[in-house]
Write a structure and sequence with these properties.
The chain is an alpha/beta fold. Helix content is about 50%, strand content about 10%. The N and C termini lie far apart (about 75 Å). It holds the Pfam family TIR_2.
Length: about 650
């Protein structure tokens, strides 16, 4: 018999909490929050007077379904904590969490630990939600059993920064704001779609504490929200800045408060009716690493939420969206999972289209999810199934409305995945004609498609135009890749350095591009030093004397290389094989470089054609064998039909091309 948090007695707790006594305050925070999530929690603070400590503790440890170990500088040197963690690991029920930066015992370094050193008790924090979801899997409970349970989350803690990887942080806010949407819909709405048919007033967000930065942040969020809502033509947005409640007459009003505590920001948005009744309110917290970005993303999430609620703007049904808030929440979580690798991405998107079978954007996203799954460690049969589902979902997106860019782009990407470049190019052009200049997603997808055809100048222009639609896209680290491919090496390095200062988590993934920029501009020693410092792949660390390796970079004839690649990667491995082609070309072995290219694109994938135009392959592109291979792939046929050629290849006759 053990005693759980809250005083309940039963045999076999859900969770045994292991910690060092000097972390007792933090442990209580965890115990209370886990109990509120619906778990039965045992920790030694619940021991009754007279009970034998060792016996009761050991019984609880054995009977618990999961053991949460709180790693800290104190607990990592505690014999008790280490012993409890060892027993839990042996039993397959260890769920560790980092509550401060420390070096874990070496035997636990390979065990993934939840990063919760920043967590202060907020049960809507993304990392906390992921941790709780992991515990549910261990304990075998449904999240529905939790008291005041949070909305389900994508089960992965997001890397910091990088505009694409910031989706998870925004998603939590968005799911919270969907509560406001649901409340709103209960009070009626005008969805006539006429310009200015829906009135909404944005009142000033107000500072709630004593930090002098709060006023500036509050004003920034208010201004940004007004700007974004005014981009929705169906809304009549009234600024209530400086207005008192007594003077406000709009049907719908938004306000909120801002509080700073060190580097943590808490926002408390509210939705009110014309009488001042609060229809919905909530709190959420974020780390303030970039105030402007925080402001923009909060405003963006609010605007998207209202777009769904009122069926106006780029998330409305007219633009391929939905008016069903629950469908939108699942769609959004599916998009988040695109970047986090959450295996639940398919179930989120399938739920979205089940709730709204006419949800075009959700069908398109389901197609992309299946396409990206081609890069997993699949058999050839599994890869074919993903392609089949990609075909079905993209076809549905197009059939629902052939006059929207969403379905055209989804079909274009399926065509790219199956190497039908002529069809892909035709559909990209149709999507271009349907661009109304208000949806940044449309421009981004078109920029990525231009990449595939070697149209880097066009891709760069499209990417630059994104920021004019939505400033959030102004710091996209993919621009580093653009600049490298345009051989603007100094600019690529400068952009990397700039982004590393403001969003290091996102820019860090572009370190290989900086390596190539340094190497190709002749700074060999710096390139090698950079590769070693950033722990880039071994061939880069040996630059410029790249070396063959029988395990990762073999020098084999084409037939043997095909067999090796199938053993190594099954149906995937396209990106790894492409990297090897860069090394071979730089070593002067253009025959081997082309062999790696051939094998790379015989393996399944939804793109990566952009790396055919990587500057490291410039020596290969000058060979007639490369031009012949491009003809075989069907890219030249697509260029001829459209008349829009790659930046790197041009026709010399009706049947021949030359590349640089």
């Amino acid at each position: 018999m053990v005693v759980l948090a809250g005083g309940t007695s039963l045999s076999g707790p859900d969770i045994f909490l292991s910690y060092n006594r000097e972390d007792a305050a933090r442990a209580k925070q965890f115990a209370d929050a886990l109990a509120a999530e619906g778990f039965g929690v045992w920790w030694d603070a619940t021991l009754r007077s007279g009970e034998n400590y060792d016996e009761v503790t050991e019984a609880a440890l054995i009977e618990a379904r999961a053991v949460v170990v709180l790693w800290s500088a104190k607990s990592v040197v505690s014999r008790w904590v280490r012993a409890e963690a060892t027993e839990a690991e042996r039993a397959g029920k260890l769920v560790p969490a980092m509550i401060e930066d420390c070096k874990r015992p070496i035997m636990f370094e390979l065990k993934q630990s939840a990063e919760l050193s920043h967590w202060k008790g907020n049960r809507k924090d993304f990392a906390w939600l992921a941790f709780v979801e992991d515990l549910h899997r261990h304990v075998g409970k449904s999240g529905d059993q939790a008291e005041d349970a949070p909305v389900p989350n994508p089960a992965a803690t997001p890397p910091k920064s990088d505009w694409r990887r910031l989706w998870p942080s925004v998603a939590i806010l968005l799911v919270v704001l969907l509560g406001a949407v649901i409340a709103w819909t209960q009070f009626g709405r005008d969805t006539s779609g006429a310009p200015g048919s829906v009135e909404i007033m944005v009142l000033s967000f107000t500072p709630a504490g004593n930090d002098p930065r709060e006023a500036a942040i509050a004003n920034g969020i208010t201004d940004e929200l007004i700007v974004r809502l005014r981009h929705i033509p169906e809304l009549r947005v009234v600024s209530g800045v400086g207005s008192g409640l007594a003077s406000v007459s709009a049907d719908h009003r938004i306000d909120g408060s801002v509080r700073l505590n060190g580097d943590e920001i808490r926002l408390s948005p509210r939705l009110l009716d014309s009488s001042g009744n609060v229809l919905w309110s909530d709190n959420f917290e974020r780390q303030v690493d970039d105030l402007f970005q925080v402001q923009e993303r909060i405003a963006s999430a609010v605007a998207s939420t209202l777009s769904v609620s009122l069926d106006v703007g780029i998330e409305s049904r007219d633009y391929g969206g939905t008016s069903n808030p629950e469908a939108y929440a699942n769609y959004f979580k599916g998009r988040v999972a695109r970047w986090t690798g959450d295996p639940g991405r398919f179930s989120y998107l399938e739920r979205a289209v089940a709730l709204d079978p006419n949800y075009i954007k959700a069908w398109a996203e389901l197609a992309y999810a299946n396409g990206l799954a081609l890069y997993a460690d699949n058999s050839w049969e599994e890869a074919d199934q993903y392609l089949k589902r990609m075909d079905q979902a993209s076809t549905k997106a197009l059939e629902l409305n052939p006059n929207l860019w969403v379905g055209q782009q989804a079909r274009a990407w399926y065509a790219i995945a199956t190497d039908d470049f002529t069809s892909a190019d035709e559909q990209i052009r149709l999507a271009d004609k349907q661009d109304k200049g208000i949806d940044p997603d449309m421009r981004l997808t078109q920029a990525l498609a231009a990449f595939q055809f070697g149209r880097y100048h066009k891709s760069a222009e499209l990417r630059q135009s994104l920021a004019t639609i939505d400033p959030i896209y102004g710091d996209d680290p993919e621009r580093i890749s653009d600049l490298l491919s345009l051989r603007q090496f100094d600019a690529a390095i400068a952009e990397y350095d700039r982004l590393m200062k403001i969003k290091p988590g996102g820019a860090a993934g572009y370190s290989p591009f900086v390596f190539w920029a340094l190497l190709l501009k002749g700074e060999t020693a710096k390139a090698k030093e950079f590769a070693i410092q950033k722990k880039l792949p071994p061939p880069m660390q040996s630059a410029p004397n790249f070396r063959y390796d029988p395990e990762t970079f073999p020098n084999l004839p084409l037939a043997e290389l095909r067999k090796w690649a199938e053993r190594k990667f099954k149906s995937s491995g396209r990106n790894q094989l492409l990297s090897s082609s860069f090394f071979a070309s730089q070593m002067g072995d253009q025959e081997l470089a082309l062999s790696y290219l051939r094998v790379a694109f015989e393996h399944k994938g939804i793109g990566w054609n952009q790396y055919i135009w990587h500057p490291a392959l410039a020596p290969l592109r000058k060979t007639p064998e490369f031009a012949k291979w491009i003809e075989e792939r069907g890219l030249a046929a697509a260029w001829r039909k459209s008349g829009e050629w790659s930046d790197y290849c041009k026709p010399v006759s009706e049947t021949e091309i030359t590349c640089t």
